[in-house]
Amino acid sequence: MTVHGEIDMDSGPILDDALSRQVSAEPSRLLLDLSSVAFIDSFGLRILVRAERRAREAGGSLRLIAPTRAVERVLRLTGFTLMVAVHETVREALDAEEAPVGRE
């Protein structure tokens, strides 16, 4: 899934709904491309935390793809990158999922 613009109180509910539907449809993986996201606030971060939890509870995972510098900074400062893998490309994220345990 590719996200554009900002992830905040205004757009967050729309993204939350879309992520929830995606996890229900394909619970094994949730790849979220953040390369076009200019801004994320605490409300948006809560949406990502909820998406990670839903994916994990469904037996899957959330992986973030190419966050912008501003977004990556927020994710890193809040410790979110300790919970969720961040990859430069979709291919890198898919390869990491397919890797044998212990290779990452």
Automatic annotation (TrEMBL):
It comes from the Bacteria. InterPro entries: Anti-sigma_ant (IPR003658), STAS_dom (IPR002645), STAS_dom_sf (IPR036513). Residues 1-97 form the STAS domain. PROSITE patterns: STAS. GO terms for molecular function: anti-sigma factor antagonist activity. PANTHER family: ANTI-SIGMA FACTOR ANTAGONIST TM_1081-RELATED, ANTI-SIGMA FACTOR ANTAGONIST TM_1081-RELATED-RELATED. Belongs to the anti-sigma-factor antagonist family. This is Anti-sigma factor antagonist.
